[in-house]
Amino acid sequence: MRIQIITVGTTGSVAPYTGLGHRLLAEGHEVELVVHEKFAAFAGCCGLRVRSMAKDPFESLIDVHSRRGFAGPGLLEFTRAAGQASKALVDEILSATDHTADLILLSAISAPIGRVVARYHGIASMGVYLQPDTPTAAFSPCLMPLRGPSPLNRQRGKAVNAGLDLLSTSAYRHLEKRLGISGLGGRRMRQERERERWPIWYGYSPSVVPRPKDWRPGLDVAGYWWPHECPNWEPPTQLLDFLASGPPPVFVGFGSMMPADPERLADLTLRALRRAGLRGVVQSGWAGLTAEGDDVTTIGTIPHHWLMPKTAAVVHHAGAGTMAAGLRAGVPAVPVPIFTDQPWWAAQLVKLGSAPEALSYKELTAERLAGALRRATGDALFARRSTALAGRLAQEDGSGVVARAIGEIEK
Predict the structure, then answer these.
(1) Same domain, 189 and 310
(2) C-alpha span between 244 and 262 (Å, rounded)
(3) Average pLDDT taken over every residue of the chain
(4) 349-377 tens-digit pLDDT
(5) Range of 18's domain?
(6) Which of 148, 190, 307, 354 has an alpha carbon 20 to 30 Å from 136's alpha carbon atom?
(7) What residues contact residue 378 under an 8 Å CB cut-off, 6+ apart?
(8) More confident residue, 194 or 300
């Protein structure tokens, strides 16, 4: 089977699909991963075929949020930037789609446009999402604060989706012009997906977020798709020496987030680690964080699956991919969410017992971070719960679940 996987967004929106892609490759399929150009080398590690899209238009959205937030003029600027980014994404997906593919797998952001393009070319498609986006009474939508079971959650989920559908208006208009068709629209296309029971596999563990009982058939939780582990990778000697020179450090990384004042964040992190009496490994990420000293070192891109199990705790923004890596490592977390679905995932970490608390990025201080780190590393309960959950995740095979489902389609 000739399969394309199309995903857009941050590093965490790409890494899981490298694992899924390699699993499908191992099952005998022809697989091509479509990502933005800056991820091409990383995504193509160890033989996975990659097709590059141009500069990531969504990077500008992160930048707008970092500078202006979502209040007042910031919201207007973000909405404008989102419209421009979505139209650019239409052009990229149209150019990247393989007209000879048998099946196209689409991430959450690429799905609304990608499904229409696939259908236009007579290609089957399927959703492969990293976050739950279907309304349910079991929990609140992931773009809102986490709430427990309530009938109101379905209405909240529908309201969030209505807002997302409205934001997609300019993209669908642009797509209509490019394809010479009419009748598209966010709400109409969402209703069509539901009416046709368009299949979606969710790439997170049912041990973390169980499948809601009120979801329709065709919506299934597969388990995590762990990033592909390249056997040729070797850790930097400097990092190996640091790890060997003392007790397990704390990992601190904010991934693709670009906080407005990275110098303040780096200084705050350094002071918090020293207040807590802990060593640290700080990942520079897109923000360019730097913190150096006898008890702290700064690193670039390092596979989370290799580093995190060697740490005492992980401090991160609670993006879906980074959170999953921390859970897999079986170490306690201190989530510091910044925007979108991150507060929701951070609350899930606390609910699971893997984190003592979630810290607001806007209200983050060295004292608060140090206090949370002392609890995460000093109370053995967090380590025990994290280890137990990691054990359950190790028994799952999320990529295999999707591969088997695709095998059934092929029959």
Answers:
(1) no
(2) 28
(3) 90
(4) 999 999 999 999 889 999 999 999 999 99
(5) 2-224+396-410
(6) 354
(7) none
(8) 194
State phi, psi for 336 to the nearest 5 degrees.
Answer: -125, 80
pLDDT per residue as tens digits for the range 43-58: 877 678 999 887 666 6
Tokens at 145, concatenated: 């604060």
Query: d(Cα 276, Cα 30) in Å, to the nearest integer?
Result: 50
Q: How many CA atoms lie within 13 A of 277 on its CB side?
A: 5
- Tokens 């109409």 belong to 188
pTM of the model: 0.92
Statement to judge: residues 328 and 403 lie in one domain: no
CATH of the domain at 56: 3.40.50.2000
285-331 residue pLDDT tens: 766 777 878 899 998 889 999 999 999 999 999 999 999 999 999 99
Residues 191 and 65 in one domain: yes
CA distance 127 to 104: 9
Torsion, CA 18, CA 157, CA 141, CA 15, rounded to 10:
10
Please give the Cα distance from 103 to 127 (Å, whole number).
11
Question: Which of 45, 42, 54 has its CA nearest to residue 12?
Answer: 42
How buried is residue 363: exposed, middle or buried, by Cβ count under 10 Å (0-12/13-18/19+)?
Answer: exposed
Domains in the chain, number: 2
Using CA atoms of 346, 349, 351, 355 in order, give the dihedral in degrees to the nearest 10.
-110
pLDDT, residue 343, reads 95
Q: How does DSSP assign 318-376, residue by residue?
A: --HHHHHHHHHHT--EEE---STTHHHHHHHHHHHTS-S----STT--HHHHHHHHHHH
CB atoms within 10 A of CB 53: 23
**Owner of token pair 């979502």:** 70
Count CB atoms within 10 A of the CB of residue 369.
23
Alpha-helical regions (H) of 277-334: 304-307, 320-329
